[in-house]
Design goal:
- The complex is a heterotrimer of chains A (about 350), B (about 450) and C (about 80).
- Chain A is an alpha+beta fold and about 350 residues long.
- Chain A contains eleven helices and 14 strands.
- Among the domains of chain A are: about 5-115 and about 330-345, Rossmann fold (3-Layer(aba) Sandwich), CATH 3.40.50; about 145-205, Dna Ligase, domain 1, CATH 3.30.1490.20.
- The radius of gyration of chain A is 21 Å and the shape is globular.
- The two termini of chain A are about 35 Å apart.
- Chain B is an alpha/beta fold and about 450 residues long.
- The termini of chain B are far apart.
- With about 80 residues, chain C is an alpha+beta fold.
- Chain C has one domain.
- Helix content of chain C is about 50%, strand content about 20%.
- In chain C, helix 2 crosses helix 3 (about 60-75).
- In chain C, about 35% of the residues are buried.
- The chains are: A alpha+beta (about 350), B alpha/beta (about 450), C alpha+beta (about 80).
- Strand 1 of chain B pairs parallel with strand 5 (about 55) of chain C, so a sheet runs across the interface.
Chain lengths: ~350, ~450, ~80
């Protein structure tokens, strides 16, 4: 048997909390790789991200400046971390940091030789909530009709185009299903006060929510896709348990989106299966927190991403196990004050 | 024994959700010199606060913008937007570089004439031009950009029957996909207003429709909106050509290019997200070039870029008046400058640097100005080193709108200094004083004496 | 001021208050002040110590010390003694 190549990979999203980030599942997938021997550098924003303290998964961790500090500061910090650790690949997992990482991807490669597998800025922007209609048109997938509005009065003028119930969505977060104008205007104000304008008004599609975790190679090939239905949802709307589905049509739609958009990297597609077919609700530009289910079903997407980054040939997965469940659980790690002190005062652990 | 440098004692609760300090050091990097001149020396000589403008930076910005457009398109003319900064010295740097003048009031118009700008190189914009103002612009052969029908009819009254050829343009507003639509200035494109205005102008031989003008918004974050605007203006130009065989000589795309100041509430740093001048240039020039005009009929492209050329060329120097603790234990720092002279702090999170070296410790604080007024907040939240009374700071990118929108409230407006290409510094505007204010007041005789 | 005896202070400036569960960081001069308080030095004596060692006016130290002590008190790390 040949010796597995060793790789140092930096991974963010170590917030394995009740509304978890994808970092730890991605790391778990990489650590179980049959192909690579992976050393993990954790990248964190908070000192209480659980992944920081999971020493069997994360070999060494560093704090990053918040995305709002800007690109120059991020590059400075990555230069420092790279000097210590000689990172070969970075897998960012937070929505809010992706913009910056996409912007510096070329620089990371040319200045430090650090590789990434990320969507282009155009791909990243094309799937924003506010332009979902265009995304649907371009990729030939049904989306709930939606419109971006800036004032409550516009709600009145769109009543011709929409029927209640509607979904009122914030620019970044928050959504409410409303049954009439007075509810709609209530949520318009409530959500816009918190997240600002514009507000997205969306057709409410009834049906079952199904999600797909997928990965594209940027050339139009869908390397892997595993669909899942949530079986139990937390009060924050996150999956607590889910099951992998055998749904050829959903896989076909996913293949089509990945191929038409030439998506590069991991992603999560959120669909509603309704009586008249599948509607795409959202496309998240990174692996979901439940990506390990794909690994358990026989498709190690994070490993495939690592292979792509390092230039190994990657062939599309042909099959996956259906009827496999994931059931999330929480676990109280015990941590000495000293470890907390180290990450708090030195910024590394 | 030599004494050690002092730093005030400081304690901070961990995990308060404020920005972690690892990697955020550039915010704390001191700014000790501007164009090679020590900040300390500038404050010593000119007082605190004071504005400092870099001639070098202005010229570089201008040359870079001209390069971005001229390398893509043969006929380009910039016009300096007076309202952005109308200090004569600043205007004349732009005029020396070849910029015309773009004014929006008769006061600005007079300032341009006073600076020696030939009348036919002044673009007269804005919604408020009286008949007298228009008469002056006509006599100087200036370019009059008509904003509304009332102005158009005033103009018609002035010129009707006279043997004149008055050069005019109309300002056109339109939907470029960006919200909110700026529809309060000019004539709307989509509902046919603009076409009606053109028709009215073409029915008066005394008026010569030479240009079309769009100014689609301010601080535009998507360059593609300019491509939409360019396409609509080109289309209007083509229609005028088809209907009256009239050649429109120029398309004016106004301003609105963003500067690298970060807007309040924005999550990412402006310098990371705003389009470059080249992206704006590409959006505009590519659209006009590809519209299908014949080479000899290509319109000149006018640009009235203000903010993007001047913002980062000016600094505000200031001094800490006091540090205090608010009732919720937040640190508050009172500066000797506030919203009175830094009007833009209402919408920007201005970058602020210490002007001297500090240790790596920093704390989260609110920066207040010196006004006895609750709205006088320069930064609601900023990580700065452990500042003490008397420490000096540099506010960056303050060149646009501050030196025109500043107000005289409680405090006098400070000096403005220009550092020239050779590092010499000049006062280009004096600070105001009690005399400045008293010069405009009259006290009736019966109020001249008091006895307390 | 009396520093509460169960407060844990490390050389790196990390402070943990087992009473409240809060943790803090302080800078080197803050650490020195806490040490001096632990050793029972009066505020006046602390000001003298600092002005001897550092380039600073005693009025500045007096203001800063007042503020620092108020923070220690508010964070329940120390108590004023008359």
């Amino acid at each position: 048997m040949s010796i597995k190549p060793s790789v140092t990979v930096a991974v963010s999203g170590l917030n394995n909390i009740d509304s978890p980030g994808p970092g730890i599942p991605v790391i778990r997938a990489l650590k179980e790789s049959n192909f690579f021997n992976v050393r993990i550098i954790g990248l964190s924003y908070e000192t209480l991200e659980p992944g920081l303290y999971m020493r069997d998964l994360v070999d060494k961790s560093y704090q990053l400046p918040l995305p709002s500090a800007g690109i120059a500061v991020l590059l400075d910090r990555l230069h420092y971390i790279h000097q210590q650790e000689n990172i070969q690949v970075i897998i960012p997992n937070f929505d809010s940091e992706l913009y910056n990482f996409i912007k510096i991807a070329d620089q990371l490669k040319s200045e430090m030789g650090i590789l990434t597998v990320l969507p282009t800025l155009n791909q990243f922007e094309s799937r924003q909530k506010s332009v979902l209609n265009d995304f649907g048109k371009k990729n030939d997938v049904k989306v709930p009709f939606s419109k971006t509005i800036f004032s409550v009065n516009e709600l009145l003028t769109i009543e011709e185009e929409f029927n209640y119930p509607l979904v009122i969505k914030g620019k970044y977060y928050d959504a409410a299903v409303v049954a009439n104008f007075s509810q709609a205007s209530h949520y318009f104000h409530k959500i816009s006060n918190q997240w600002g304008l514009p507000i997205v008004v969306q057709e409410f599609v009834t049906g079952t929510e199904v999600n797909v975790t997928a990965i594209g190679d940027g050339e139009g090939n869908c390397i892997g896709a595993v669909p899942m239905r949530k079986l139990y949802i937390t009060d924050k709307g996150k999956a607590w348990a889910g099951v992998s589905l055998d749904d050829a049509q959903l896989i076909a739609i996913t293949n089509q989106i990945i191929s038409k958009s030439k998506w590069k990297g991991g992603c999560e597609l959120e669909f509603i299966r309704s009586n008249d077919g599948y509607y795409l609700l959202e496309m998240n530009p990174r692996f979901p927190a439940w990506v390990y289910l794909a690994v358990a079903c026989g498709q190690n997407h994070p490993e495939a991403l690592l292979k792509m980054a390092l230039g190994y040939p990657v062939k599309p997965f042909q099959r996956y196990d259906t009827g496999k469940l994931f059931i999330r659980y929480s676990y109280d790690q015990i941590v000495d004050m000293q470890q907390f002190e180290t990450i708090s005062t030195k910024g590394e652990l | 024994m030599n004494k050690l440098p002092y730093e005030r004692p400081f304690i901070q609760k961990l995990n308060l959700g404020v920005m972690n300090k690892f990697g955020s050091k550039t915010e704390l990097e001191p700014c000790t010199h501007i164009d090679g001149v020590p900040v300390k020396k500038l404050i010593e000589e000119y007082g605190s606060p004071c504005f400092v403008i870099s001639e070098q930076k202005i010229r570089n910005n201008y040359k870079n913008a001209v390069r971005a457009f001229k390398t893509r398109y043969p006929k380009i003319q910039f016009a300096w937007s007076y309202k952005t900064n109308y200090l004569d010295a600043v205007c004349n740097i732009f005029h020396q570089e070849g910029s015309w003048a773009e004014v929006v009031s008769i006061f600005e118009y007079q300032k341009a004439i006073h600076n020696g700008v030939p009348g036919d190189k002044i673009i007269f914009n804005g919604p408020d031009k009286s008949k007298e103002d228009l008469a002056i612009a006509i006599s100087n052969n200036s370019l009059i950009h008509i904003d509304h029908f009332d102005e158009l009819y005033d103009l018609v009254e002035l010129v009707q029957g006279r043997s004149l050829k008055v050069r005019v343009a109309i300002r056109v507003n339109m939907d470029t996909g960006v919200r909110p639509i700026w529809d309060r200035f000019g004539f709307n494109y989509e509902n046919g207003q603009a076409w009606n205005a053109v028709t009215k102008i073409m029915s008066h031989p005394e008026l010569d429709l030479v240009g079309l003008h769009a100014h689609i918004g301010t601080y535009m974050l998507v360059s593609s909106a300019y491509a939409v605007a360019a396409n609509k203006l080109c289309d209007l130009m083509q229609q005028v050509q088809n209907r009256w065989n009239q050649d429109i000589q120029y398309l004016d795309f106004g301003g609105g290019f963003a500067s690298t100041n970060t807007l309040k509430g924005a999550y990412l740093q402006a310098s990371d997200v705003i389009p470059s001048i080249d992206e704006y240039a590409e959006a505009i020039t590519a659209t006009v070039l590809n519209f299908g005009f014949k080479q000899d009929k290509l319109p000149t492209i006018f640009l009235e870029t203000g903010r993007a050329l001047i913002d980062d060329a000016a600094y505000l120097l200031g001094t800490v008046v006091a540090t205090k603790r608010l009732s919720d234990e937040r640190r508050a720092t009172v500066m000797d400058f506030g919203v009175n002279i830094l009007f833009t702090s209402f919408w920007y999170d201005h970058q602020i640097s210490p002007a001297q070296h500090f240790s790596r410790h920093s704390e989260n604080m609110t920066l207040y100005g010196p006004l006895c007024m609750n709205i006088d907040v320069v930064r609601e939240n900023v990580m700065l080193p452990l500042l003490n009374k008397g420490d000096q700071v540099v506010v960056h990118k303050v060149g646009a709108y501050n030196m025109t929108q500043w107000m005289q409230f409680i405090q006098m407006r400070p000096k403005v200094i220009l550092i020239d290409m050779n590092g010499r510094h000049h006062v280009i505007r004096e600070h105001e004083s009690l005399e400045t204010m008293l010069r405009y007041e009259h006290v009736p005789a019966h109020l001249k004496t008091i006895s307390l | 001021m009396h520093i509460n005896s169960n407060v844990a202070i490390s050389d790196s400036g990390f402070i943990f208050n087992p009473l409240t569960g809060d943790s803090f960081t302080t800078n080197p001069i803050g650490l020195q002040i806490i040490e001096m308080l632990k050793n029972g030095l009066s505020q006046q004596k602390i000001i003298t110590e600092i002005t001897t060692k550092y380039l600073v006016e005693s009025s500045t130290v007096e203001k800063d010390l007042r503020d620092y002590l108020s923070m220690l008190n508010s964070y329940q790390l120390g108590e004023y003694v008359n």
